[in-house]
Amino acid sequence: MASSGAQGLRRCAGRAVLCCVVLTVCGAAAAGQIRYSIPEEMQKGSFVGNIAQDLGLEAKELSERGVRVIFRGRTQYFALNAKSGHLITAERLDREQLCGRAEKCLLNCEVIVEHEMKLYGVEVEITDINDNAPSFQTGEMELKVSETTAPGSRFHLRNAQDPDLGTNSLQSYKLSSNEHFSLKVQTASGGFKYPELVLEKPLDREEQATHDLILTATDGGDPVRFGTARIHVVVLDANDNAPVFSQPLYRVSVRENVPVGTTVATVKATDLDEGVSGDVIYSSQITDQASQVFQLDSRTGDITVFRNLDFEETKLYEMQLQAHDGGGLFDRSKVEISVSDVNDNIPEIRITFPLSSVPEDSPPGTVIALLIVQDQDSGENGAVTCTIPDHVPFRLQKSVDNYYSLVTARDLDREQVADYNVTVTARDRGAPPLWSATTIAVQVSDVNDNAPAFSQAAYSVWVSENNARGASVFCARAADADWGDNARVTYWLAEGELQGAPLSSWLSVQAESGAVHALRALDYEQVREIRFAVEARDGGSPPLRSSASVTLLVLDQNDNRPEILYPAAPRDGSTGVELAPRSAEPGYLVTKVVAVDADAGQNAWLSYELLKASEPGLFALGVHTGEIRTARALGDRDALKHRLVVGVRDNGQPPLSASVTLTVAVADSIPELLADLGSLAAPAAEAQASLTLYLVVAVAAVSCLFLAFLIVLLGLRLRRWRQAQLLGSAGGALAGVPVSHFAGIDGVRAFLHSYSQDVSLTAGSRKSQWSFGPPSSAGTLARPPAGQGKEPAPVVEDSNMCEADQAALQVSRRFCTL
What we know:
This protein has nine helices and 56 strands.
């Protein structure tokens, strides 16, 4: 047998090679479909087809053009050899495993050429080879035949199985030679063959008690494969006595709560024969329902429970029993098993037609739900009573049989309790009693019976001035105890006026949130408070409303700088001048700085500070009064004018400030002040003329080293001639000068600079005349009395003026030009 198997494998291999060669030649990529055919059981890496040739490509072009194989399933049965261009198997292929008994076994995949975007279908047929021998389910079969069996009787044998197809599948059966039995092969629809054993000659147990036969099944493959099974025929003794039950009918009662495995009944049948003919075997012919609950022991006749009994499911079971001996004789009996009830079912509560919600204004007696209460037990075990808690505003009302209605017992108020969970308890009268409970969710729907309510009837709100336009200054919130649209509150501003304008131009209320927005930037200096009313209305039908009064108090911010009223700032940019007599004692009131602040509270608390003084310690400033007083007595050495910078600051956060510059002139009168200022200017001019002379002399001395005496003499005459041309007459007066023109940053110079000037000098009359034009602006000080200062004292000069006189003249000229 082993040699024949090896020979068959060699033949199979030869056929596989021949088939591959033929199919390779026949495979072609016609209409985008490539077909191959290979036998099953080829080893991994076996040749399937030449993909490169069928696609019209060289093997080296496969990788260049991106040729690859794609499978639809998870298992990859084939692979592409990039070097040879061959399609090879990726694993061993078993046709019976892949396709079963299908007539054709086809495996599909796709070959894609990525660079050309072409797709070719590949279909590989796996052909069958005779790789499976016929086999029986069991290698040995036992058959019992009575010695009284008539010739020609047939006995069914188990058939063999062969997963191969066609001629490779099961073809015939053969029985080993035997004089008592023969083999007959029956063919069913679809070509299925099954064997039957035929009794040809009567059996005699005393002559031969057993017969051993060999059944062989063969296929039509090349090489032929076969399978065998041993048939053991046991000849039975003749049986002339049938078994007899002790009772024709057995009646049994059992409680439904008996445990599984309990024996509920035992049947008994006797046979007068001996040996095999006297061995009684019990069997049952029962309904499917009983067969799932009871089990019959074929040897002992015990009937046991192997599944829990249920009285409510089945109250009575019937079983038809048979007792047969080894010779085929039998007797019949019947068993009736009645199940008695125990209290093992809890009451069931079913809710029908429940209301999803009930309005809170529903009258008492409104039906909420209909309940059906059932208990599958019987008698007292099935008698049920239902109850609900006492604290809920509902009650149970029994109608017909096991029907109950859940109705309202009193008025409902959703604002107090919005929903109820009503627990319905059903309890039977069993021993012990069983009960069940279910919860009915009752939702109370809202009715618009509550108006919106503000937390306060009146509100006081503080907001800082200079708020941003549109900024939220207050949120009016009203609560509504209702639900849904009935509790959806909208807000609006009640009509009113403020400073002659509609209130809606000052404030707005957002309808959904109640936020009050200021449409203008509020100014504490203009509006100190705004009184208005906010109304709230719900969305019910009809709607309910309420209102609240709001007082909006504007808080001051430090947004105004101190304003200095005195001294007023001059329009020409000069500073004010205040007089202080030289005889002033310490504490003398020179002047007072007066300032105001438009803010309120501590933002308007002003403090004064001396920021800068030309002579520190001479003047003192009142911090809260703004009074400027002398801190000590004035002396002769003190300057004629003093410059003071006074700062005014409020008490806000951050503080704001302003400043003013004052000039304090020390003199008993205005003429004295002018005379003192003139005497101060002369020494300064003299010193300047001396410096100029020194420079001229130095230059002339250096020039004399290089020029002759004549050149020096000529230069001196030319210098004298030039001086003679420059001499002239001039006159002037200070009469009619307003005191206000002493105000300025540089004192007297500012006063003189505000006038046009005309200066001339006459050498012959030896007089200098000074004249001034009219003032350019009104003054702050009083004019001198009439008749004073109209004619200024004449200034007499010699024609042969010395260098000191010329320096004084230059000082006078400069004084006038300033």
